[in-house]
Amino acid sequence: VRCIYMYLCNRLQMLQVGILHHGLSLTGIRCTGAARLYHKNVLDHYKNPQNVGSLDPKDENVGTGVVGAPACGDVMKLQVRIQDGVVEDVKFRTFGCGSAIASSSYATQWLKGKTVEDALSLK
C-alpha cells in the first residue's frame, strides 16, 4: 500500500516539473524563455488550494508519502485514505512555489473518488 502513496507523490512531483518546464510564471515573468502565463484555473488552485491539511495517521486506511528535498525548496506530503479500493479522501501539505501548490491541489481533487487503479494512471 505504501508504494501507491509514493507513486502518487512522484506523479504529482512530475506534474509540477511539467508545469515549470513550460516556462509558466504566476507573476508574468518568464521562467525558461516562454512568454505564457498560468491558466486561470492554475492561479485559482494556487490562491485557493483545495484539500490542504492532514488525515489521521493512526487510521489504518490512511497512507502517507513525502517527496521533495528541503534543500531545493519544494516538499510535498500527500495523505490518501483508501476504502474498498477507492480513494475516499486526500489531503496535502506543500511547501514550495506556486506551481507546486496548484498542481498538488488540482491532483487531490482529481484523485478523490477514483479507484486505486485509476489513481495509479495519474501522469
TrEMBL record:
<feature type="domain" description="NIF system FeS cluster assembly NifU N-terminal">
    <location>
        <begin position="38"/>
        <end position="123"/>
    </location>
</feature>
<protein>
    <submittedName>
        <fullName>Iron-sulfur cluster assembly enzyme ISCU, mitochondrial</fullName>
    </submittedName>
</protein>
<dbReference type="InterPro" id="IPR002871">
    <property type="entry name" value="NIF_FeS_clus_asmbl_NifU_N"/>
</dbReference>
<dbReference type="GO" id="GO:0005506">
    <property type="term" value="F:iron ion binding"/>
</dbReference>
<dbReference type="GO" id="GO:0016226">
    <property type="term" value="P:iron-sulfur cluster assembly"/>
</dbReference>
<dbReference type="Pfam" id="PF01592">
    <property type="entry name" value="NifU_N"/>
</dbReference>
<dbReference type="GO" id="GO:0051536">
    <property type="term" value="F:iron-sulfur cluster binding"/>
</dbReference>
